[in-house]
Design goal:
heterodimer, A: 316 residues, mainly alpha, MetI-like fold, 2 domains, 14 helices, B: 304 residues, 13 helices, globular
Chain lengths: 316, 304
């Protein structure tokens, strides 16, 4: 296990470094001179002021020097200051991460507690009405754009239930009930697609496993059907299901962007959209890198979990 | 051995009667429709959208840009079948015109991305060695960004325009298709017929183009259709954020911007119909894609 762990960690570092490099250089192409944007009207008045600010922000240094100093800052958890507010990006990020993390976690939890049982039952009761229903809903879940589903949910809540979206955000710790009420709708929307994908994957994996010899053996020795399904079939179908849950975890961090915008939640998604609207390069850079780091960590966790669950993988 | 039975044993002698009749494209289409009715339905709806994209200006009842202050926020009625928006523009015409922009970005982006990724996957699998592992690491880096995040970063860097949106949509697809095609190409590379191309002295270019490529085409086609579905979704998301297709040109995504969410109570049709069209198109693309996968290559599972 240790060798596997080390090998996997060695793969992790270059990917994160590569992601940092990529983000930095893509953001450099962002049109518009940062110094000019900060100064606004003043910039047109004096080019000296622009030049001074460029010097002050370190924009006149060669690119590789800028990259290295940024990377050094990232390693010390100093992401620089926002061009918009002038405050450290880290302060803002720390407030916003829990919002997104809560939303994604709720979405994933929802999808596992609905998607996995639905997939299992759908596989057992193959070609029945229930199976068709699950499969149709699963298909829809993958086709409906989540931001549109969000708008539809808001329309329904507003017109049918006379519910108005809250104006200010209440945190989970200070006001848990208020917070969960607020998160319910976006978490449902976010989890919908994930549930669909999980259900489809669970169904096809279960169908595959149910045809295996060991399932027949388990039945032949007279085990309870529940034990056959859960301990023998599901245990062996688990690996691909876990893969899809983890893969969707990464997907959800992307889906978040639009959804937080729709529901007006102060998370990372709306943060990055605001940063791009305002041409706030350091902020956008920091959030994108953070999201890439989250995905890389998710992949790492997934591989380690594999190693734990399936001893064969550790030695390959 | 009687003379009567010999003619069936001699190869070639009976070939005229045993040969399969030449089967045209219509026979295959009919077969596809019989075995995969859902896939065929997807193909038909996709065809309708393509017609709308190509012949939109001929089919739209009104000018999609025309402002009608006297018809602002009208509910669906006999004249304006899908209602009008906050500037009095006809929704149906805007959706029909929007088909072009949405499919342009979604389809072009997905095709370009999967083509580039496919070429990378094919060549690196064939070459192997340092080039292969270097390309693999680059793909790992690109894969570490969620799809929307990568598209967003690209579109932010390039600025909003129709072509830039297509480029932004294409980038996240490169690593995903490169991986699928690479794994297929790796197994094709081991086949006997590739070894024989080496034995008869084919150039690398010839081996890749005439022998490896045709055998990797089936998974590539499947990846393409799956990615077109996501491409349309990514375009809609980008345009919804105001970073995709720039207004006033309509696209399904940018029809949902601002006003559609502002008037949810007064004019829900503004939000309902464009989203419905996105859903139907993505739905039909994925039905077609799944059916194609079952027919062409049942072994592969495409990842998103």
């Amino acid at each position: 296990m240790t060798a596997y762990l080390v090998r996997r960690l060695l793969l992790f570092i270059p990917v994160v470094l590569g992601a940092a490099l990529f983000v930095f250089f893509v953001m450099q192409v962002l049109p518009g001179d940062v110094a000019q944007l900060i100064l606004g009207e003043e910039a047109r008045a004096s080019s000296v002021a622009v030049e001074q600010l460029r010097e002050h922000l370190g924009l006149n240094r060669p690119l590789y020097e800028q990259f290295l100093s940024w990377l050094w800052g990232v390693l010390r958890l100093d992401l620089g200051n926002s061009l918009w507010t002038g405050r450290p990006i880290m302060d803002e990020l720390i407030v916003r991460i829990p919002v997104s993390l809560e939303l994604v976690s709720l979405g994933v939890i929802l999808s596992v507690i609905i998607g996995v049982p639905a997939g299992i039952v759908s596989a057992i009761k193959r070609e029945t009405l229930f199976d068709y229903a699950v499969r149709s809903v699963a298909y829809c879940g993958q086709a409906i754009p989540n931001f549109w589903l969000g708008i539809m949910v808001i329309i329904t809540l507003v017109t049918v239930f006379r519910w108005l979206p809250p104006i200010s955000y209440s945190s989970l710790i200070e006001n848990p009930i208020e917070n969960l009420l607020m998160m319910a709708a976006p978490a449902f929307v976010l989890g919908f697609r994930q549930t669909a994908v999980t259900a489809r994957m669970t169904r096809s994996c279960m169908l595959e496993v149910l045809n295996e010899d060991f399932v027949r053996t388990a039945r032949a020795k007279g085990l309870l059907e529940r034990a056959v399904l859960l301990r023998h079939a599901l245990a062996n179908a688990l690996l691909p299901i876990i893969t899809i849950v983890f893969m969707e975890f990464a997907y959800l961090f992307g889906a978040l962007i639009v959804l937080e915008h729709v529901f007006n939640l102060p998370g990372m998604g709306s943060f990055i959209v605001e940063a791009i609207y305002r041409r706030d390069v350091p902020t956008a850079q920091a959030i994108i890198l953070f999201l890439a780091l989250v995905v890389a960590l998710t992949n790492l966790a997934q591989d380690l979990l594999y190693g734990l669950l399936d001893p064969r993988i550790r030695y390959s | 051995m009687s003379s009567g039975s010999t003619h069936t044993l001699v190869p070639g002698a009976a070939s005229t009667s045993l040969q399969r009749p030449a089967r045209g494209i219509w026979w295959h289409t009919a077969r596809f429709a019989r075995h995969k009715p859902l896939g065929m339905a997807g193909a038909v709806v996709t065809g309708v959208f393509i017609v709308l994209a190509v012949a939109g200006p001929l089919l739209a009842p009104f000018n999609p840009y025309a402002l009608r202050p006297e018809h602002v926020l009208e509910a669906p009625n006999a004249t304006f079948i899908l209602g009008t928006d906050d500037l009095g523009r006809d929704q149906l015409s805007r959706i029909i015109y929007g088909t072009r922009a949405s499919l342009y970005v979604g389809v072009l982006g997905a095709l370009a991305g999967s083509m580039l990724g496919g070429i990378i996957g094919l060549i690196t699998a064939f070459k192997g060695g340092v080039a292969d592992s270097a390309a693999q690491r680059v793909m790992d880096v690109l894969m570490s960004f969620p799809m929307m995040v990568l598209a967003l970063a690209m579109v932010a860097a390039l600025g909003p325009s129709l072509l830039n949106a297509a480029i932004a949509v294409s980038v996240p697809f490169i690593p995903r298709s490169a991986r699928t095609i690479r794994s297929r190409a790796l197994s094709v590379k081991e086949a006997m017929y590739i070894e024989s191309t080496k034995a008869i002295g084919c150039s690398d270019r010839r081996t890749i183009l005439y022998h490896m490529l045709p055998n990797c085409l089936a998974p590539w086609l499947v990846v393409c259709t799956v990615q077109i579905a996501s491409g349309v979704l990514v375009e809609a998301s980008l345009s919804f954020l105001g970073l995709g297709v720039p207004p006033p040109e309509p696209s399904w995504g940018n029809m949902l911007v601002g006003a559609a969410t502002k008037y949810v109570e007064a004019a829900p049709w503004m939000a309902i119909f464009p989203g419905l069209v996105i859903t139907v198109s993505v739905f039909s693309f994925s039905l077609l894609g799944d059916a194609l996968r079952d027919v062409l290559d049942p072994r592969i599972r495409t990842d998103r």
